[in-house]
């Protein structure tokens, strides 16, 4: 799997990507691909899975049980906002979220400018955060 580049992958290739080690394991990645499932969520909407991607290669599947994506967490305040602000902030740093459509699979890829991404637990809602990049030249 690691030798495949996401631009060349089919939907079947994405479905074959293994899940992360545990439902609460955090991963750091630079983008993710949205993989709709056939499962119906209790909300009535379709569940989605998310493939973590680093350097244009799949890392692992992240969820499979989520019907909603929360960019920068529920409320959009960012990762660990309580520890950083100690209360609900009036303003938060701007994050430029982007999305494109992979040609071969037709799946959507999401990333944030100049940031790495971090996921939280695999729950009903998928929470993904833009964090400062640890790379020298993001």
Structural write-up:
With 138 residues, this protein is mainly beta. It has one domain. Helix content is 7%, strand content 38%. The chain is built from two helices and nine strands; from the N terminus they run H-E-E-E-E-E-H-E-E-E-E. It has helices spanning 11-15, 81-85; strands at residues 28-29, 31-40, 46-54, 57-61, 68-71, 97-101, 108-112, 115-119, 125-132. A five-stranded antiparallel beta sheet has the order 4-3-2-7-6. Strands 1-8-9-5 form a four-stranded mixed beta sheet, with no helix packed on it. The longest helix is centred in the first third of the chain and has 5 residues, at 11-15. The model has no long low-confidence stretch (mean pLDDT 84).
Short structural summary:
The protein is mostly beta strands and 138 residues long. It has helices at residues 11-15, 81-85; strands at residues 28-29, 31-40, 46-54, 57-61, 68-71, 97-101, 108-112, 115-119, 125-132.
Strand content: 35-45%
General form = globular
What oligomeric assembly is this protein in?
A: single chain
Order of helices and strands: HEEEEEHEEEE
The stretches of 5 or more residues where confidence is low (pLDDT under 50) are none
Q: Order of strands across the widest beta sheet?
A: 4-3-2-7-6
Overall structural domain count: 1
Helix coverage percent: under 10%
Judged by helices, strands and strand pairing, the structural class is mainly beta
Number of extended strands: 9
Annotation keywords:
single chain, 138 residues, mainly beta, 5-stranded antiparallel β-sheet, 38% strand
Secondary structure elements and pairings:
Elements (H helix, E strand, L loop, with lengths): L10 H5 L12 E2 L1 E10 L5 E9 L2 E5 L6 E4 L9 H5 L11 E5 L6 E5 L2 E5 L5 E8 L6
Parallel strand pairs: 5-9
Antiparallel strand pairs: 1-8, 2-3, 2-7, 3-4, 6-7, 8-9
């Amino acid at each position: 799997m690691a030798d495949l580049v996401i631009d060349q992958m089919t939907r079947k290739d994405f479905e074959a990507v293994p899940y992360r080690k545990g439902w609460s394991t955090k991963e750091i990645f630079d983008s993710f691909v949205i993989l709709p499932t056939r499962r119906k969520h209790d909300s009535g909407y379709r569940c989605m899975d998310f493939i973590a991607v680093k350097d244009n290669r799949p890392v692992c599947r992240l969820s499979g049980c989520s019907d909603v994506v929360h960019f920068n967490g529920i409320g959009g305040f960012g990762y660990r906002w309580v520890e950083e602000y100690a209360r609900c902030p009036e303003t938060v740093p701007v994050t430029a979220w982007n999305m494109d459509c992979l040609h071969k699979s037709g799946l959507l890829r999401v990333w944030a400018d100049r940031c790495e991404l971090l996921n939280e637990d695999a729950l009903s809602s998928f929470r993904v955060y833009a964090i400062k990049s640890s790379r020298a030249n993001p």
